[in-house]
Amino acid sequence: MGVIRSIISGTGSYLPANILTNKDLEQKVDTTDEWIIERTGIEKRHIAADNEATSDLAVEAALKALESAGLVPEDIDLIIVGTSTPDQTFPSTATTVQYKLGITKGAAFDVQAVCSGFIYALTTADNFIKAGQAKHVLVIGAEIFSRILDWEDRSTCVLFGDGAGAVILSAHTGSGDNHDQGILASRIHSDGQYNDLLYVDGGVSTTQTVGHLRMKGREVFRHAVVNLAAVVKEVLEDTNLTSEEIDWIVPHQANKRILDGTARKLKMSPDKVVITVHEHANTSAASIPLALDQAVRDGRITRGQVLILEAMGGGFTWGACLLRW
Ligand code: UT7
Question: pLDDT per residue over 58-108, tens digit each?
Fold first, then answer.
């Protein structure tokens, strides 16, 4: 008897036109292009225009994902947006995206897991599909982190950028073994005791301000490599696959040294890691679908290949999805 699997039937992404280079940042804070490249791998980032909201970036990415899936907005029965930089405190950015796409049926909601937002959203969507409650889910990661950065804090403002990525997750019948196309395993985790290592110092019920991002970078870095390697091992064990059988890792793009360190810990070749951090910087929940869309469109990712998507972010939250393309 067949089982329901969630396959990625389309991908799309959007980056704002305005580019901010490391050289530009040298004019704003006490930093250098060399320091940023050596410590992070970042060369530039995209910054949203004043009249662009997170939902605008999300809609652009969604339209491209719909087109690549050969679907129209009316086909979508659920929208999940991973974001920590919503248009408004409420309603959710997902309902605004729903409205802008002209969809009036189904449901839409946001997921807040900071840089792990896309993995959380994808895992949630997969469970709705497997439960038979949705056929085509629009899963988006969209962020405008430039609006929550302290542009005088060189330890954080050089690290982030804006953007959006989207996938369509569609119900598909599989045989239930690890040769199926689609999501084969996913794991999400959180541990709130690390709240104060990466957070925004404002909020609705506390300061009534939006606040600015604060991070103890070195400690986050240490936890990231350990947690990411551990969660990747979990999804490998869940599927009885080995790291040699993985074709691509599509990680959250925070720092090139984290990507290299995680690959090393997993004994995987750095050539199997999709890297966009040099071009986009850290776009939080948007970084995985942005990297995925790039590697699908340039032909690196092909049907039948096995991918692991993984992320870690504020909370801490972290997680991984293993899927066959
Ligand atoms: O997406 C969610 C997850 N986020 C992450 O995974 C981020 C994890 N952390 C990191 O990527 C790295 O820790 C950073 C890139 C944030 C920092 O790199 P680091 O190698 O850990 O540097 P550090 O914080 O230990 O700072 C080293 C030095 C310090 O100077 P002293 O105290 O050694 O004199 C900093 O003041 O670098 C200095 N520094 C800078 N120098 C030039 C910090 N920021 C800058 C800067 N330009 N922008």
Answer: 999 999 999 999 999 999 999 999 999 999 999 999 999 999 999 999 999
Task: For residue 241, give the 3-state DSSP assignment.
Answer: coil
Distances from the Cα of 7 to the Cα of 4, 296, 315, 321, angstroms: 10, 14, 29, 12
pLDDT over threshold 80, residue 1: no
d(CA 45, CA 28): 15
Task: Summarize the confidence of residues 192-211 as an average pLDDT.
Answer: 98
What pTM was estimated for this model as a whole? 0.98
Instruction: Centre a 10 Å sphere on the Cβ of residue 132 and count the other Cβ atoms it contains.
Output: 9
Q: Is the distance from the beta carbon of residue 155 to the nearest atom of ligand 1 less than 6 Å? A: yes
- Per cent of the chain over pLDDT 90 is 98
Tens digit of pLDDT for each residue in 118-140?
999 999 999 999 999 999 999 99
Domains of the chain: 3-174 (3.40.47.10), 182-324 (3.40.47.10)
Provide the percentage of residues in the chain whose pLDDT is more than 70: 100
Can you name the residues that pair with 109 across neighbouring β-strands?
80
Roughly how many angstroms between the first and final C-alpha of the chain, as a whole number? 22
Alpha helix positions (H), the chain:
22-26, 33-40, 54-69, 93-100, 117-130, 154-157, 217-239, 256-265, 277-280, 287-297
CA of 106 to the centre of ligand 1 (A): 44
Whether residue 272 contacts residue 249, with contact meaning beta carbons closer than 8 Å, is answered with yes
Q: Listing from the earlier edge strand, what are the strands of the sheet with 162-174?
A: 3-14, 162-174, 136-144, 78-82, 107-111
Determine the Cα–Cα distance for residues 177 and 174; give it in Å rounded to an integer.
Answer: 8
Active-site position among 136, 172, 212, 252? 252
Per annotation, catalytic residue among 22, 46, 115, 212: 115
